[in-house]
Amino acid sequence: MSQSVQRLSRLMVKTLREDPADAETLSHRLLVRAGYVRRTAAGVWSWLPLGKKVLDNVTRVVREEMDAAGAQEVLLPALLPREPYEVSGRWNEYGDLLFRLKDRKGAEYLLGPTHEEIFTQVVKDQCTSYKDLPVTLYQIQTKYRDEARPRSGVLRGREFQMKDAYSFDTTDEGLAASYAVQREAYRRIFTRLGLDFRIVSAVSGAMGGSASEEFLAPAAAGEDTFAYCPSCGYAANTEAVTFPLAPVSADSVGPVEELATPDTPTIESLAAHLGVPASATLKNLLVKVDGEIVAVGVPGDREVDLGKLGEHLAPAVVELVTEADFADRPDLVRGYVGPQGLEKVRYLADPRIAPGTSWVTGANRADTHARNVVCGRDFEVDRYLDVVVVRDGDPCPACGAGLRLDRAIEVGHIFQLGRKYADAFGLDVLGPEGKPVRVTMGSYGIGVSRVVAALAEQTADERGLRWPAEVAPADVHVVAAGKAVQQALAEEAATALAARGLRVLLDDRPGLSPGVKLTDAELIGVPWVVVAGRRAGEGVVELQDRGAGTRTELPLSEAVPRVAG
Ligand code: ATP
Ligand code: MG
Fold first, then answer.
1. d(CA 503, ligand 2 centre) in Å
2. 176 C-alpha to center of ligand 2: Å?
3. Taking 80 as the threshold, does the pLDDT of residue 489 lie above it?
4. Same domain, 343 and 434
5. Whole-angstrom Cα distance, residue 175 to residue 187?
6. pLDDT band at 205, cuts 50/70/90?
7. Which of 7, 49, 376, 438 is 20 to 30 A from 511 in CA distance terms?
8. What is the pLDDT of residues 68-107, one digit of tens each?
């Protein structure tokens, strides 16, 4: 099928020589400079003609694969009433992330950040029998989240495009099957899009190994860190890496011994004073969990990830203790807290503090530490929680080899939700025996607009964007240098390429130097560039492969089939 030629002289695209002042990442700089997107407000973006084409291409691939996987497309509103989010508890749980607004009568609304509630209501309304299930619904729609730090352009917007899908099943096995179908669809989507991606576990083993996985695109600009094992293939978001509990025998450890350790309130000063490694000391961080003081024990050489701690204890609110809290509790000696003899304080600990392990820790007296403090003998752990910041080289939970860390962009998230929303909304269908059966759900998201930025991050170079063929705004970019013979050959090239079914961008802008046009072509990043230049009189063009970075001179008659593949 023949395609039409898109003329740059008519296309609204204004490239910029300078980077936008606020741009922090490569994709942000290049998408703005190449005229793909334009900032309208913090985290709110307008998609210009070239950007809209790329966004539409991503959307098309997502839609085709969702349809092929048997999901049914719907479109729900972005403007939503408060009530269902009150039922689920998320009206409050979302905190400042939620855009809330009132209508003229004072009724409260929100702009949807994700739609579990509304899909649950729709299915409750439409499906009454087990015969109506399973069903997987999806939409490609605008989402709103009042992100604390909207940055990096469309990578983290306050308004953004998401594909969100929800599966509804009557059994756990059904949910697992629906999840597997979505997971496979995601693999196909990201593979077709030309994205380099990893599938990583997203929640700790405590919630079930495969209950939630993220699709991550490795990139320096990513805000997520994931750990992977080069030896066995294990991969998890660092927030989900769980270190196994490995108890040891403590038979040979002597009794607890107190040591005068003046002026050693920090782990470094203590380790230096005693001549032991920081990893042999036990650090106890005091936090308040819903107002209750709790101690968190980790090896002295590790840091507590407060975000991870918060996620484990959610919806409880975790805060650091203050001066005033210490003033109220003289039993808690700042800098010298130890779990032995700590009364009325719950003790949470990292799994490295396993039964039988022996530690140097605070003696709950100023300027005093204790050694030979054995877990299970001298103190008990109320609850094990994996809350330390994972480090490069930590042992792989699956095979013990050294883990590696990498940064990535979260492009997708699939999640076996279970019955949380069905319980909240009383979503039952009539089962085969005529009794109501509670429905179980999965939820599956792709950041469609974020994928555009993630692709740009992974493929661009300093000269500009370099789109994979499937998403590029055109297949080939034809540049006409200024002379009549060059323009004529460029027109001929554009017509011939379009006739082969290729989407052609023709730079026919008058009065621009070839240098400017070539710089723009590199910036815009279409996979092939055909230049009618120096040897246009002989019918010879220069063919640039933007991805490979190669340039070849050849007759137009040979260039056309080469590009058409
Ligand atoms: P993040 O951790 O990056 O804030 P999230 O875990 O809150 O994301 P989900 O609720 O899982 O995001 O949403 C599904 C998908 O939507 C994410 O995997 C991501 O690709 C995309 N997404 C989430 N927030 C944004 C945003 N602010 N801008 C663009 N895309 C987003
Ligand atoms: Mg997520």
1. 35
2. 19
3. yes
4. no
5. 18
6. very low
7. 49
8. 999 999 999 999 999 999 999 999 989 999 999 999 999 9
DSSP class of residue 393 equals T
Residue 368, in any domain of the structure: yes
Q: Which residues contact 113 (CB under 8 A, 6 or more apart)?
A: 94, 97, 98, 99, 143, 144, 145
Ligand 1: residue whose CA is nearest its atom 13: 445
Domain boundary among 431, 457, 483: 457
Query: For residues 562 and 4, what is the distance between their CA atoms, to the nearest angstrom?
Result: 19
> What is the pTM for the complete model shown?
0.89
225 located within any domain: no
Instruction: Pinpoint the alpha helices (H) of 16-89.
Output: 26-33, 49-68, 82-88
Atom number in ligand 1 closest to CA 156? 28
432, 518: one domain: no
Pocket of ligand 1 (CB under 6 A): 114, 145, 147, 156-157, 160, 162, 410-413, 445, 447, 449-450
What atom in ligand 1 is closest to the CA of residue 162?
16
In a domain, 371, yes or no: yes
Question: Hunting for tokens 């979260």 — which residue is that?
Answer: 410
Number of domains in the chain: 3
Q: Which amino acid is at 480?
A: A
Residue with the nearest Cα to atom 19 of ligand 1? 447
Distance 424 CA to ligand 2 centre (A): 22
* Long-range contacts, 182-185 (Cβ 8 Å, 24+): 182/69, 182/71, 182/136, 182/414, 182/442, 182/444, 183/213, 183/414, 184/69, 185/65, 185/66, 185/68, 185/69, 185/71
Q: Which ligand 1 atom is at minimum distance from the Cα of 145?
A: 27
The CATH number of the domain holding residue 294 is 3.90.960.10
Full strand arrangement of the beta sheet holding 108-111: 79-81, 108-111, 99-102
Check which CATH number belongs to the domain holding 452 and give it.
3.30.930.10
What's the CATH number where 529 sits? 3.40.50.800
Give, for ligand 1, the residue of 450, 451, 455, 457 to mutate: max count of ligand atoms closer than 8 Å to Cβ: 450
Name the percent of the chain lying above pLDDT 90: 80
User: Which residue's alpha carbon is at the smallest distance from atom 22 of ligand 1?
Assistant: 447
Mean pLDDT of the residues in the chain: 93
**Atom 2 of ligand 1, nearest CA residue:** 410
From the CA of 421, how far away is ligand 2's center (Å)?
18
Nearest to 175 by CA among 424, 444, 440, 413: 440
Residues 46-76 have pLDDT tens digits of: 999 999 999 999 999 999 999 999 999 999 9
Residue 90, domain member (yes or no): yes
Residue 544 domain boundaries: 474-564
- Nearest residue (by CA) to ligand 1, atom 11, is 413
* One domain, residues 61 and 176: yes
Torsion angles phi and psi, residue 521, rounded to 5: -60, -40
Nearest-atom number in ligand 1 for the CA of 114 is: 10
390-423 pLDDT per residue, tens: 999 999 999 999 999 999 999 999 999 999 999 9
pLDDT of residue 264: 83
- Are residues 33 and 135 both part of a single domain? yes
* Residue nearest ligand 1's atom 29 by CA: 156
Residue 547 Cα to ligand 1 midpoint, Å, equals 29
